[in-house]
Predict the structure.
Amino acid sequence: MNINRKLRFQLLVQNGFFVVLFLMLIVLLGYLASQYHVAKDITQANRNILTQGSVNVLKQMKEPVNITVFATKDDASGGDNFRKGMIDFVARYQREKKNVNLTFINPSIEPKLAQDAGIKEDGEVIVEFNKRVEHIIPPIAEQEMTNLLVRLSRTNQQAVMYLDGHGERNLIGIKNNDIGEFGKQLEKKGFKFANPDLTIAQAVPSNGAMLVIASPQVDVSDVEAKKIKTYLESGGNLLWLLDDDNLRGLKEVADYLGMTVSPGIAMDMASAQYGADARVSFASLYGEHAITKNFMLRTLFPEAHQVTAIGTDDNGWKVSNLVEVAPNGWLMAGPLAKDAKPTFNEKTDKRGPINIGVALERIYGKKGQRVVVMGNGNFLSNTFITNGGNLDLGVNIVNWLAGDDKLITIQPMPLKDINVTIPDTDSGRLVAWMVFHGFQYFIPLAMMIAGFFFWWKRRKA
């Protein structure tokens, strides 16, 4: 084909038109990318995007979040990429909340600013929200940062009070039957604890967020029981964990709440599929309540008792069922011996599902009063707190009782794939060197060589 001036001009116009269209397409794609963000995370623990729990927390925070990082500049040649890592980490929060602001200050250049801010080490981070400030020291994972944001956004700063001295599950205890691990998680969420001695105190302090009664093993004295009832009559909030129908001197309190507990426990024959005993019940259904709204995690309750409560015009309580277990099981009519084989008695036992938790609320003065009674304290014990959604349910209950409904959410879970363990042997170090440098140097070099080879081969053809 002869290429004359006219044909050459036509080809030039066509190519020019194609280049213009291609550039317009690039600009359009750039504009769409700046306006709409789509991310897909295929890592085991979704480490490149925020978990739903963190997203829910950010949605409740309307005011700006200011993050100030006191760190020296990165030294890429020495492997120091801390600032870049912080930029990538905070970007996950900025994608969900536009007014998360990130600022870097070099303490070597601005020592006065670092001193005034109380900075103690390089890389320390200050997070400010709604005129409240907290420090956090690296390494920082999503769970630590989101817990910090929860603490900053918490509106109720009153202490969680707990009854002690009667063999209760201790909120700061380390024994298997204690609930100390649950207490640690509450502290990370910004809660503080108080332990009033009701044998000495004039009354249960009215400035606490709630009173926790965690399965007393000996009877509460009449004096203490009357003070607890007076506390309820005065509008106090209560979390009551029960392990049996022995109310340990608190029957007057139970009557005031219109609450009863079954002598027998729930038997869940479906527990066998999870490798558990029938005495361990798994939650099958959650009630329509703020505590369990959108809550779909599996929870388990060893030796749970049925709890019922009745709201009347006299007591003013609005009662909501929280957790139902054993839909294909039953409620024993009485206690079951430890080694006895569970069998259903048509005449005396009650078929499931069995409700094991109630939430009560009523208007008291200018504020509401809230009570939660659970027919099981074991689910929050150090032994079972990490099972399924037990921790999440417990935190939701405390948040609701404290009046921080907006913080009721699924808790961000720790990353499972954050660390790489390298065997401390010569072969282990060699494999690690090959893997890390292979992606950095060898694979790119091999692709360049392969590309040059195919280009040279086609050129010769």
